Amino acid sequence: MTQTSQGATLRRAVETCIQPDEAGIAGLGELFTDDAVVWTPNLLTTSRAELADALSFRENAFTDVAIQFDGVDVFGGKGFVEFRVSANFSGPFVIDEEVTIEPNGRRLVLGAAAVAEFESGKIKALRAYFDDSALLEQMIA
User: Fold this and answer.
1) How far apart (Å, rounded) are the C-alpha atoms in residues 10 and 32?
2) Residue 95: how many CA atoms within 13 Å on its side-chain side?
3) d(Cα 25, Cα 16) in Å, to the nearest integer?
4) Which domains does the chain have, with CATH numbers?
5) Which of 67, 95, 110, 117 could bridge across to 99 with cysteines, CB 3.0–4.6 Å?
6) Average confidence (pLDDT) over 103-128
């Protein structure tokens, strides 16, 4: 698989994880290996099946989600992507049974980066890095 197609796979994976829908979740097999590990500051899955389950129960607190990619680079079996996500905070964000952050209607912006490891053209590991406290600050401001 070429570096260009691996870059496209990484981009689609980020888009699917941020804006999951039924078609995207059904197509995870095109992007991730069966044993793919996905880690973010607020998610850890150790298989494609776990990732599909986690994406099925995503928060409905954010609407009008937009992703802007600032760079996608692939070197050998590793890919790197920098991106920004913006969304309207329009619904309650449930942290746990006792804590819910009510929407403030603001447009939130979060910068992030992700690193992927590829195996046979699919993502075997994906690690995303972002400052979730910066997001929380925007939510409670």
Assistant:
1) 10
2) 10
3) 7
4) 3-60+67-86+111-131 (3.10.450.50)
5) 95
6) 97
How many Å apart are CA 55 and CA 16, to the nearest integer? 9
Query: What does the block give as tokens for 110?
Result: 């979060």
Cα–Cα distance, 88 to 65 (Å, whole number):
7
The conformation of residue 132, written as its DSSP 8-state character, comes to H
Q: 102 — phi, psi (to 5°)?
A: -75, 145
Q: Coil, helix or strand for 106?
A: coil
Whether the per-residue pLDDT at 61 is higher than 80: the answer is yes
pTM, entire model: 0.91
Alpha carbon distances (Å) from 78 to 1, 87, 119: 12, 29, 9
- Per-residue model confidence (pLDDT) at position 3: 64
Structure tokens at 91: 């619904």
